[in-house]
Amino acid sequence: MKGLLHRHRDLCERAVDPLEIAAGLEAHGVTDRTAARFRHRDVFSLAEEMYARVPRDGDTPARPEEAPVSRPRGPRAAGVILALLPGALCAAAVVCLRLTEGRPRLIAAAVGVLAVALALGAALRRGPLRAATRSTSTWACWLVGYALLGDGLLDNALTGGPDGLPDGTADDPWPVTVGPVLALALSYAPAAGCAHLFTAGARRKLASSRGLAEFSASVRPLLLGTFALYVGALAALLALTGAVLGEPAAHPQGLTLGALLLLARLLTVHGHLHASRLVLTAAAAAEAVALAAPFAGRLPGCGFLSVPVETLVAACGPAGVPTAACGIGALALLVHAARRLTRASAHAPTERTR
Amino acid sequence: MDNRPSRHLLVRIRSSRCEPPGQRRLPKREIGGARVRIGLLTEGGYPYVSGEAGLWCDRLVRGLDRHEFDVYALSRSEQEEAGGWVALPPQVGRVRTAPLWESVDDGIVHGRRARRRFSECYGELATLLCATTPGSPSAAAGGKAEEGAGGQSALEADRFASALYGLAELARDEGGLPAALRSETAVRALERACRAPGAHSSARQARVPDLLTVAARLERALRPLSLDWYEDDDLGSVDLCHAASGGTAALPGLLARHFCDVPLLVTEYGVRLRTHYLTEPDSSPAIRSLLASFHGRLAAETYRRAAVITPGNTHARRWQERCGADRAKLRTVHPGMDATPFAQAAESPECADPQTLVWVGRVEPAKDLVSLLHAFAEIRRAEPGARLRIVGTPSGPEGAAYLAHCKALAAQLFPDEADGPHAVGRNPVAFEETGGPELPTRADAYASGALVVLSSVVEGFPSGLVEAMFCGRATVSTDVGAVVEAIGGTGLVVPPRNPRALAEACVALLRDPERRDRLGAAARARALELFTVEQNIAAFHSIYLEILSRTPVRRVVLDETGEPLPFAVPAEAHVPGRWSDPAARGTARGGPGSPRSAPGWATDDPVRATARATVPATEGAAL
Question: What domains sit in chain B, N to C, each tagged with a CATH number?
């Protein structure tokens, strides 16, 4: 018996119940006839004795063989280049816009938008911001489009315009504010970095924490920290683009829009598509209503429709509309993310059998 | 044929038993007057080309062409699904498939009441999984008598069943179960159960990643609960569910039994619980303990609810008994093998070289060819003219290395030898493969030798040995796995890892051609009686009839136009036993094992109408 125990010590020590020992013994060729030599009726009762004989101090944490936590691989060259690509392409497009005139400018704008969209799509398909499900790109595009053209259009609409299409410059009657959009495109790289930091940190915490409550408590500062890091980076980029392009730095609307997009993406990546889609849709709808209200107010007898927007613009300027819409949305998403992304189930590894 | 893939999980509405006549599927076939539709439940198996138990199920379906089969298949991987199906015979009425490899999310978010229902059921399930298993000594050491422990385990089995069916009912009523099983509620319930007093010691060590893994694996295992198979026109319309394996494949059968009262037959050639223990070596103790507990309890519940359980061999039967299967329900049905390729070899014993031993199989370390070579060295000492043919292909890189090792050993042990000074010599041990011009099939390999040897140290059901028995060859084999069960008294059996005993047995048979022939003929007779496809199919046929004769069909009886026929089944048909006739009642009490004259449907008049056709099954049960 001792010899048998010694031979199968490994099996007996890691078994969680006698049946596991029985299965292992049978795989090693032990049959009922072998068990009869140890005065047992069958392999099962032999396994039970072996299970009982092996000292098993289950209360001492016997995990010296702590499996090395599979750390997410560090950013690789291809990933870094992909993350930088949208910003670089957007900068190139802005330069082209500035240097060209008339029809070539139109072509440059179209090509630039297409290139940035493609690069962004490619970057989102891999890396830490990759989502398993279909995402909310339509509403995100609408929000970015508003940041580009919306403020000028609203301004014009309130003063009786617009009288023509924008020509792509900042000093047009319908100015195109490329500054915040360029900053947002450039901030894709820090956003990916922050998401990577968050994922890696959460996975580390997952491996080291003992309970779900402890995990939540330790992840919450991590989430807020990475979020603050991104907002800081975006603020710096906004100031930089404002200075380089000679536009007034559009801090509030750019910051709120960036925060909203990052939080929506993080929630989507971790499987909470519903909330992010809802908030993005609501923000986009609010902006659309704000744009439509002045035009509706021009109809006879409907002047009251444009009053709220006029009040808001009079108080904070045309930037107040996107700031309010995106700010409220971002705040709601931040509260939601602080509850949802600090749960362990949001960081469960997804497996897929091929 | 209705081959919709069941990818889209719908919110199910309880349908009535009477569907509109246009959608009603009337059974087309009948056996002995009772029309039977069998739901074949497989997991990673039958209709897929790469399925493991495909051949067996295919033979069963083709062999029972008077039954009607509906196949409900769970696929294990995307590759398998891409591989396509085998050709299906016409008796397969419909095939419904569902993937187990893809996480399906129906986008339904539970309301408050559904959440509470879920957390109650899942919490109960988690508590049971973390509790000390009934079989372990720490639970038995309570000093209680056997009775107390039995009552305790029955109570726990009931709790497991109610939790499982509670989850299934939730999935049927509300949907959204996959998301709920992965949610924080589920993980929290697991954590609470692991930290509760009385939890298993290895469960108490569970950490957050372990909990997440267990939740994900449970979600995967419970995926059949979310399928839309349990309606009256799906599994509700079959007369009998036949699960081709235990575990996840039997889960739809359990639910069909729960929702629609369809009897369940479980066939297990390899016990799923044992496979689970063997395939889970690297996970942490907490994961292994919780999942083993789940699989063990699921197996116990399956065995408890099944009408009949058919293990493939005594080994599986022992495991099933150990997991709580009732002995009265167990019927061993040996796997069937096609005997026709071996008939010619059996009829021509003279083509065998009387000095040649043959080993046929896959080359791998578990076959212990080394000890066979050492035994052969001893045989050569007694019988210098003996030869050994080792026929087989290596399995995997490990097998290839082992084959090279064996070849080197053979070259060392036995020098090449020639008949005379001018002939080319050859080694007495030949390593060959089937498929060439010399040995086209395995049957030819068996036929070329007078004696077939099996030297394994680990073996499940020895199909090679059965093939040798079909060929009418005498065998010498080691006592492993189901060898003794297969060979019975028709061959010599020696202990494993004992070359001397193996050699002595071989020499005894080599020197005694008469005994060899006698044993070979007996082996062939035994194999033809026990291991042919025909016996396998006949056994399942009679088991189907047996189950149906005990199960009243509570289906709406239809007339010729497909309209429901009110009052077609008399009220007393629902009473067990015929209360007005004491003699017949006595027969019914005799139970399934007792001899009975003839089933009710067999003595009845020829069937006239659809309505009449469905009633006899009821009468057969009431007889």
Answer: 27-102+227-329 (3.40.50.2000), 112-219 (no CATH), 340-417+424-531 (3.40.50.2000), 552-622 (no CATH)
